[in-house]
Structure formats: structure tokens, C-alpha cells
Automatic annotation (TrEMBL):
PANTHER family: CELL CYCLE CHECKPOINT PROTEIN RAD1. The keyword RNA-binding does not apply. Its main location: nucleus. Keywords: DNA damage, DNA repair, Nucleus. Belongs to the rad1 family. It comes from the Eukaryota. GO terms for biological process: DNA damage checkpoint signaling; DNA repair. This is Rad1-domain-containing protein. It is found in: Nucleus. It holds the Pfam family Rad1. GO terms for cellular component: checkpoint clamp complex. Residues 342-362 are annotated as: Disordered.
Length: 362
């Protein structure tokens, strides 16, 4: 630790009243061994990536903490070419840590609900409705203190439960990647908002065919928003369709199809295409999409966005407590197909099925 850090205090310190909230948010991006941490005045930004074609971003806003202190005067002065400096002219701290180690530390006191250890007549069964992150459901409302003293110092994690205090220091490493997967919010090809649980159910359904690719098709069909997710693999092929009048699961190898009529407000709540007359078709690695399954399972809504280059963003809104939400974002680089490649075959198959459906309705 440098003398300057001792004199001016740590670069960062924060206190959270619930270690479980931090754990469940960070577990959404827990598919990588290392997470890159970016400390700023607004909060902590955790990012992970795989093979440069997928990235997961989790931002812990300062409002999640009961106290949050960022001392920019302790950080290193910025270099002339620095891209991560704030208005004071200092570099914002960026480093890597072992994400599995951090997750293990946050759950060191266990995940069970202590209320279940009490006899049934002694349990409080008349509490107010709770979210998935409420302490009475999770049973892990331990105080968590985070600290980062100076550049190169370990990340300190202190957990407190009653009279027990556990202190862990996680080794920090040099950052491994400098930039995020580029995603142009100003040049969107599509934007769709829907229930995250429906996306989770669709991906689970499609996974049964052991697919390698997921193809997304979005267009206006008969004046109504239409979204289709299709996948094919060694065990067959399947497709899940969403529009504002029904949700249909269609498997070409099956004898029956299933569909359910649902209120339009519960399906594609928002559907925007840059060109309403165009069809948006892109394919992605299925196993990469599956890595966002944990976020799909706990989120309430998801924003599905694609830019003009085909980069896909899945932004999940997660309710951490009543009236408070956090966001976890995933970005995926699409497959680039040549003319006559498999991408055209998938699109042609969807068009053929569309014709079949119109004939059945007539």
C-alpha cells in the first residue's frame, strides 16, 4: 500500500445491508472465471466476456449500498491517452478479480432461510408480499463491507452476522480487455420489451434439440408485431413465436403444436423496428445465449435490442427490493453468413412455415 493511500484514505469503500442481493446480481454473470471491476462515483461495474463474442455487464449502483465512498484523489493521475479518467483528471480504478471466489465469499454464511429451522407455529407466515430478493425469503441479510485501498491492493470483503465477522481479501489483477463489444444505441434495428420469464421458457424449450445456433426473426406480420426464435440441432428443430395475439410453439417433427391466447399487454409490450417494412434476421451461438439463463430466471422484464450490425443486447430488469431495480446486460456478436449459407436456409424455412400457417387459417 502506498503512503499516499494511507494519508488520504482508501480509494473506495461501501456497505451493503444485504450480501444476498449482491450475490444474486453477480451470479447472473457468473459464467466466467475472471470479472473486470470498474470503480466510479456512480457505482461498481462488473464485466465478463467469452471468446470476444459475448459480454456480460452487471452494474451495482451506489443506491444499492447504505453507504458509498469513492475517493478520486487517491487514484492515479490520468495519462494523456487515458480513456477511463473522470472530470478530475485521474484514472478510475479498473482491475480483475476471481468471480467464483467473490461469489463464494458473499455466500460464506450460507443460503438457507433460518426461518425454516423454526417450528411451523413459530414462523412468521403473515408478512407482506415479498420479491425474490426480500430478506425474509432469502435468509441472507448479512452486512457486507467492500473496500479497495490503493492501486494494486486486494479487494476487501467483510461479512458480518451477529457477533461473527469474516474478512476476505481477493487478489486483484491487471485488466484483460480495454473495450466492450461495440453496441450502437443510436442505430437500433429493433427494440422489444417483454417478460423475461417468457424468454426463459422459450430458450428452455429450444434447448431440447441440442442446437448450435439461435435465429431471431422480427417483423410486422399482417400489421402486428411478430417475433420468432428458432433453433435446430442433432435432435431436431423447434421454433417459438410471439405476437400481440398469441404465443405459439411449433416443432416441425411433432404431431401437434401448442398455443395459448393471452392478453396483448402481456406479450410484446414494446415493439419497434427502424424500418417497419423490413425483416430483421440474425443468428447467434446458442450456448452463449444460454449463459444468460440465470438473469432470465430472476428478472421481471427484458429489453431485446439489436443494432444495425446485428449485435444483440439483452438487458434484464431485476427487482432487488420494493421500488428498486437493477439491470444486467448481455451483448452477443452475430454470425456473419455468406449468400447461400445456412442463415438463408433458416430464413427460407421460416417463410415456408408462415405460408403453411396462412393456409391453415383460411
Amino acid at each position: 500500500m502506498s503512503d499516499r493511500g494511507v494519508e488520504e484514505g482508501p480509494i473506495f469503500s461501501a456497505v451493503s445491508a444485504s450480501a444476498r442481493q449482491l450475490f444474486l446480481l453477480l451470479r447472473c454473470i457468473g459464467f466466467a472465471d475472471k470479472a473486470q471491476v470498474h470503480i466510479s462515483e456512480e457505482g461498481l461495474r462488473f464485466s465478463v466476456e467469452e471468446s470476444s463474442v459475448m459480454e456480460g455487464l452487471c452494474f451495482l449502483e451506489k443506491s444499492l449500498f447504505t453507504s458509498y465512498a469513492y475517493n478520486h484523489t487517491t487514484a492515479r493521475p490520468s495519462t494523456p491517452n487515458s480513456l477511463d479518467s473522470d472530470a478530475t483528471g485521474v484514472d478510475q480504478p479498473i482491475f480483475q478479480i476471481s468471480l467464483p471466489s467473490l461469489l463464494e465469499t458473499l455466500q460464506i454464511f450460507g443460503l438457507t432461510d433460518p426461518n425454516t429451522n423454526r417450528p411451523p407455529w413459530a414462523r412468521d407466515n403473515h408478512t407482506a408480499p415479498s420479491t425474490a430478493f426480500s430478506s425474509n425469503v432469502l435468509g441472507m441479510n448479512h452486512v457486507c463491507r467492500l473496500g479497495y485501498d490503493a492501486s494494486g491492493s486486494p479487494l476487501s470483503v467483510v461479512l458480518e452476522e451477529a457477533s461473527i465477522t469474516t474478512t476476505c481479501e481477493l487478489t486483484t489483477y491487471e485488466p484483460a480487455f480495454a473495450t466492450d463489444i461495440p453496441f450502437s444505441r443510436k442505430d437500433l434495428a429493433l427494440k422489444i420489451i417483454m417478460r423475461a420469464s417468457w424468454l426463459h421458457d422459450a430458450i428452455t424449450e429450444l434447448a431440447s434439440t441440442s442446437p448450435t445456433r439461435l435465429t431471431l426473426v422480427a417483423r410486422m406480420q399482417d400489421g402486428k408485431p411478430y417475433l420468432a426464435l428458432s433453433a435446430s440441432g442433432s435432435l431436431g428443430s423447434a421454433r417459438v413465436e410471439f405476437n400481440n395475439s398469441k404465443a405459439t410453439t411449433f416443432a416441425p417433427t411433432a404431431t401437434n403444436t401448442t398455443q395459448s391466447d393471452t392478453s396483448p399487454s402481456l406479450l410484446l409490450e414494446t415493439f419497434q423496428l427502424a424500418d417497419p417494412t423490413a425483416k430483421v434476421v440474425n443468428s447467434y451461438k446458442f450456448d452463449m445465449i444460454q449463459k444468460a439463463a440465470r438473469a432470465m430466471a430472476v428478472a421481471t422484464k427484458v429489453s431485446v435490442r439489436g443494432d444495425a450490425q446485428g449485435v444483440l443486447s439483452l438487458q434484464f430488469m431485476i427487482e432487488v427490493e420494493a421500488g428498486k431495480v437493477s439491470f444486467v446486460d448481455f451483448r452477443f456478436v452475430p454470425f456473419v453468413f455468406e449468400e447461400g449459407d445456412e442463415g438463408d436456409e433458416v430464413e427460407d424455412a421460416l417463410e415456408d412455415d408462415e405460408v403453411d400457417h396462412s393456409e391453415d387459417d383460411s
